[in-house]
Amino acid sequence: MEPSSAGGGSAAAGGGASRPPSFASQTNALLRKNLIFQKRNRKATIRLIIVPIYLCLLLSILQRVINNLLDKPKYKCGCKCVNVNGSVPCQNVCGIQYSTLDQAGSCPIPNPPEWPVLLQVPRPEYRAIQDSSKLFTGLPDGSCRKSQSCPASIPFTGTNESLSTSVMQNMFIDSPLTNLSDFTSISTLLLGTDVPGTSTGFIDPAFISGAPIYVLQSQCKPMDSVTVHTTIDAVNVQKEIKCVQGLPLWRNSSITINEETFKGYRKGKIGEGISEVAMAYDFQDSNEKRFNVLAIYNSTYQNISYIPMPFGLLRVSRSLNAVSNAYLQFLQGQGSGIKMLLEFSKEMPKQATRLTIDFSSLAGPLFFEWVVALLFPVMLTYLVYEKQQKLRTMMKMHGLGNGPYWIIYYAYFLTLSTVYLLLFVIFGSVIGLSFFKENDYSIQFVFLFSFINLQIVLSFLAAAFFSKVNTAQAIAYLYIFGSGLMAGSLIRNFIEGGKFPSHWITVLEIIPAFSLYRGLYELSQYAIRASETGNPGMRWSDLSDDSNGMRNVLIIIIVEWLVLLPVAYYFDHASAVGHRSSPISIVKRLLRKNPTWRKIAVNELADRPANDVHVEMEKLDIIEERKTVDQVLQQQYSGYAVICDDLKKLYHGKDGNPDKHAVRGLSLALRYGECLGILGPNGAGKSSFISMMIGFTKPTSGNAFVQDFSIHTDMDNIYNSMGVCPQNDMLWEMLTGREHLQFYGRLKSLNGSTLDLAVEESLRSVNLLLGGAADKQVRKYSGGMKRRLSVAISLIGHAKVVYMDEPSTGLDPASRKSLWSAVKQAKQDRAIILTTHSMEEAEALCDRLCIMVDGRLQCIGRPQELRARYGGYYVLTMTTSSVYEHEVENLVLKLSSNARKVYHLSGTQKYELSKQEVRIADVFMAVENFKKRVEVQAWGLADTTMEDVFVKVATGAQSSDQLS
Fold first, then answer.
1. Chain-wide mean pLDDT for the chain?
2. Are 123 and 244 in contact, with CB atoms under 8 Å apart?
């Protein structure tokens, strides 16, 4: 038999493949189901949409609080009522001379103050001293730390050592500090401070802090200092000036200087390294006609968060001025008096400003990343929930393809995400957040729309690796919060630090959370600049700027989406029903040398070893079924609904446990219009067999054909005409029974009045129309109602093969009888395979029964045949007092010498009497005579039941397995 060519089957026999549902009918069914689910879940959706609105309101409130704080008099330009030119009354005059440092930032500065330019000098406890390595010579020992008299070391080098040394000797001028009295006199000296420069817009912080100002000289007397009084603009300044020895030290190369200056930063207190030097010079190829010097300064202060980067260069001007004057002295002679006097530094005039902090743009990248990424766990939870509850599997087994599933769910998630973010941006703009208002809306839309597409694909990809909702949720939330914090820390520092290579930043942005943060960071920076300068925010023309990372981010997101889309589709398809349960196992399967399953083709039948068929003389019915299967497999079109050919399933043991043979070489053939019942004790392999037939698991070996389609290669065609009532109910808690049947009916290509009629008939057949149960949500159903609904789902539509795994579990007797009637009516034109533990149900519904024990088929046939074959005896039960038990045993042996006692407890005995040895009339007569002599409390004679047959076959098979 060629499975691929057996598409139609025999219509005359009631078989043949049903017409598969069209793509439109599948998408229509799924879309309607999702719309109903969304309608029921609207409260959760509203709560989800409220999250970004709530965050926008929170940011707006915080922004207003900050604005109100900055509008207080403390931060406004200081004002005072003064008499101007003798005017009376006084006039209110505002300006920096009436302000504190907090107020100065908002004041106009029409005439910026002048202050001497200073050199950055290490603090006394951090100045370089000799370390234990003795690698850097000329440094003082650590004793100067106690008296705080350590010199400020200045290493230097150059091609011409004598010239370099001469220039450095002219660096310092020794002048008594008592000669210092005013602003002009101190500007002629080499001044320094240990206070880093800041962006005050008013005056160098060294003049308004308690720290001293240093003057660097070649020699200093102990405690050499002086206090100078001066006025800078309208500010009276009184500063202590201390003498610090400047110590030039020759080094052989710039490499040595680099090692020395890099040896340690502020490690003086713990004695590590040589600590800091004041400055360093490399005179390179300088000579009498050419002055070429490299000034080396401490840039560590650039990394302090409250100091903007340009102020790392604030002290360099004095360093260059000092070495230039020393070179002039070298050329002209020390007594020439020629020098370049750098008298003061002065900022440009400043207008009055209102202090503002755009908090939403400043904190926006991190918070807005969490808002956008919050959709990821929502979508992942939705997908994993359907996977955990086997709902995806149930839909696929009723004909839903991967294409419609992906299109509907992708469109559903895309619509939800788009509405979510549109409301976020619109509401943020309405309440005045500059992050949204200042930047071009089209850029925001393209960026966010691109990312939510990538995020949807990531949700599908991640869902393939999870089987539990709780695990998926926990990891998803950890991912979005953890990756957001990491992106906020790394990306911002790398960009603003300016030292991390830009191409490595681009590599980091391959991580979706990092690319999202980078895009939001760029938008926030343009919004901040817009609010500060009045210039427009980000526009499309700005993407051509090399410093703008938005263009690279958009390219990365779009390329990742295009690459991951087919990857996610493949893994999603691979983890669905009929495939390996986990994408990780795909790799294992590729690496495995000997696959654990093989496909049985027609030309392999002749080569099958003889020992593959277990022949036992007492199981002629199994042999006949095997022959039937072999004959049918030789035909091009079988006309059978189900054919199982030596089907086996082996579960490999783990952690040292032995392998488990769940199904051992099962072969059977099932016609249309026939119901086959599978009986067996727990663990016999019934559910494993059903799982293979419906595509839950792959057979280890062997094959099966459903409507002439192989379960190895054609499960998609099998699903089109298959109905399943699983052992565990697979239902949506928020949908009603009617909505379930409508959904699965549409998957079976039913529509319009045909669908309505089929749904009504299905509900009526399983008694779900009473009391409005059909229109109640499934979460309000009892266990029995859910079971009846699962049976109705399996029978709706044109399913030609139906699998029912213990369908009547949990039903009351009345519901069970009604369910049996529905199944009897449904089996007229379809094949049904049913597993059950109820012998009554098996006899009522099944045309043939088979009994499985330990994965092996023990017998197969009609119920009457099995009773006749395995139950050729009557069961005599008699209850007397314990005194007469021996009398009862003698009576039974007189009736049948081969009688077998099967039960004995407290005077009640049960015997099996061979039908060939006794007649019913003889038994009745013997018991009547016996009752005249002995008091018989109760007695009965019964024919063999299916329960007796089942117990006998099961116990016999288990006993033989133990002996073998």
1. 81
2. no
